[in-house]
Amino acid sequence: MPLFSQPLDHRPWFQSNNFIIYSSLAAATAALAYRTSQQSTSSTKTTAADLLNSTKRTLFKETEEETFKQHKPLFPVVDVVKKVGVNDEFFRQLKSIAKILFPNYYTKEVFLLILHSIFLILRTYLSVVVARIDGRIVRDLVSGRGKRFLTGLMYWFAIAIPATYTNSMIRYLQSKLAIGFRTRLTRYVHDLYLNDDKTFYKSINLDGRIQGADQFITTDIAKFCDTLSSLYSNLAKPMLDMLIFNYQLMKSIGMAGTIGLGLNYVVTAKLLRAVTPSFGKLAAIEAKLEGDFRAAHTRLITNAEEIAFYNGGELEHSILDKAYYGLVKHINSIYKIRINYNMFEDFLIKYAWSAFGLVLCAIPVFAPHMVGDIAGNITKETSEDAQVGSRTRGFITNKRLMMSLADAGGRMMYSYKELAELAGYTTRVYSLLSVLHSLHVNEFDGPKEAIPFALTNIQGKIKLGEDGIKFENVPIVTPAPGKDRQGELLVENLNVHIRSGEHMLVTGPNGVGKTAVARVIATLWPTFEGTLSRPEDRNIFYIPQRPYLSMGSLRDQVIYPHTHEDMKKAGRTDDELMKILEVVRLAYIPDREGGWETKKEWKDVFSGGEKQRIGMARLFYHHPKYAVLDECTSAVSTDVEGLMYAHAKDMGITLLTISHRPALFKYHQYLLRLTGDHGKWELEQIGTQQQQQSLDKEMQTLEDKLQTVEALKSRLGEIDGELSLKL
Ligand SMILES: Nc1ncnc2c1ncn2[C@@H]1O[C@H](COP(=O)(O)OP(=O)(O)OP(=O)(O)O)[C@@H](O)[C@H]1O
Description:
Layout: H1 17-45, H2 48-58, H3 65-71, H4 88-101, H5 108-142, H6 146-193, H7 199-206, H8 213-275, H9 279-302, H10 304-309, H11 313-366, H12 373-380, H13 384-440, E1 461-464, E2 469-477, E3 489-498, E4 504-507, H14 514-521, E5 531-534, E6 540-543, H15 554-559, H16 564-569, H17 574-583, H18 589-593, H19 602-605, H20 608-622, E7 626-630, H21 638-650, E8 654-658, E9 670-674, E10 681-685, H22 689-726
Parallel strand pairs: 1-5, 4-8, 4-9, 6-7, 7-8
Antiparallel strand pairs: 2-3, 2-5, 9-10
Helix pairs in contact: 4-13, 5-6, 5-8, 5-13, 6-8, 7-13, 8-9, 8-11, 8-13, 9-11, 9-13, 11-13, 12-13, 17-20
The structure holds adenosine-5'-triphosphate (ATP).
């Protein structure tokens, strides 16, 4: 007997098996929801910093290096843009990403997925029950059986409770799954992006394959996760629905009807596939344009003051407008493409399918010999009223099943569009992961042949742990990202040894490669040839040309990149910090700003000179063995600059200073002069005749300036005299 024509289970719903299933599911999901709410309430009581620390501990457990090694072969870099679409490459990429989303069977996401699937099955089952109750109610209404009609209504309301619970749980679990995926992916990407080998720097400066990593990490990953989890319910449920409803219908409309339905799906899928535009590629382009627009805004925020000084608002306005209109033009073209596609899709799924469905529903009525049981049921009824009632019930049940089927089929077909969009986001996420993986192991984009100074041909050696900085035949070369590019030689084979206590000054014209030397020491730029020996990271500290002020409190500015926690662990105190600020002549800052805990946008608070003094304060706080100071006191007055250099030397820090200021010569023993003449360089001991000449030259310049002051003073006196005469 077909399921939908069986008499209903007359036990109250709460005594049925459904109730037991529901109770356990409700308990499991309630536990899940309780845990989530507990987490969120406890977090509201803590401070943001506590939250940051606790998040680090719980959510952000670092990905093991071994995991990256295992995953590397899964993420070869491919020319993704050419291959966007629902194809083998898409499924391969999705499979690779799935290794990150589901690292093993015992994760929360697997549990969520199972729970989600159970609710999806339940919803399908409930739809069948609803179809049966609906059929019964209408039959009783048509036959005028009031008591049965009321009983039917009672069941209708009873089923509404689990049905609504199921629906809201499906939505809840779908969102939980999406955020779970996002957390896993974001954590993985952060671990790959911000690690000891500074992949974030490489991806921005040594590689051009990822443009605007921020957009990839903040938006594209989120869209990918949302689409993936919604696609699961949009595909899994209708597939299940179709299986169950087809089975139900087969019993009522017979084999011929079912074959007809099956053929209908195949034809529809083929037609839709043939007319579907490449939504994946369009979605990938849209994501890129969104990224460009966002990057233009970020640049404006970062450089607001400089732009305002230059009165550059108008130009920036046009740049932003251009980025926006580029995006909108693309989105509009997608909308236009969608008009025809949606018309075709709607015609096929809503109208053609409904007509076909009505024909199938008519089979048991007009051609009962083509179906088995249901026709038997109808003909066995004796009175005409009963026959009408039975037909009505059969029709309503079939129609509802057919409608659910059409809905399920429609959703599956609509999902194809979503699948195509998912292919676009998958491409973006995959390309981010594959490029980061390749940069993590220093595989750069570049020419295949072994061309000198190409990023694919790095031959130099780096020895860490030396007491000193030693260049042996190391050329300083600009990195040149790109398939057929090689770097430009700035400094020819450098042979220099800076021993502990032997301070060195690097000088030379603008753009000659002074900072480039610091970049090579810091391993930001590759050592293309020769050998570089240097201390471990913890023994060497860099202060760059542009001062960087981090997010956080005043204390965080001085101790960067330490956290307050690190500082306490190291047994350091605020009193010590105060003494450091006295050395750099910034002792007035904590009082003026309201204490160490004050949080501000510090880059807008400090003056240029103050920012640089904070940089020196960091050096004194960290007290490394070696320091590379890159024009980091250019905005500080010479007297305070001198004090800071003397203090650094007293602390036993060996200095490698990059500067144009002859006033700094006296704090160093060696002078490395980069001449800019085909990469030539000279090393000399400070105190030589040449250096003396350089100092004499500076003295001469100062004396010349002083003479101008005298002339200006006498002119001022003259003007004063003239003015007093007139008055
Ligand atoms: N990421 C990069 N990629 C390619 N070339 C670069 C990059 N960064 C800097 N350069 C180039 O390398 C050269 C050396 O730059 P560097 O910053 O070392 O100059 P510098 O000697 O410190 O100059 P200044 O005295 O003006 O600070 C310059 O011509 C610069 O344009």
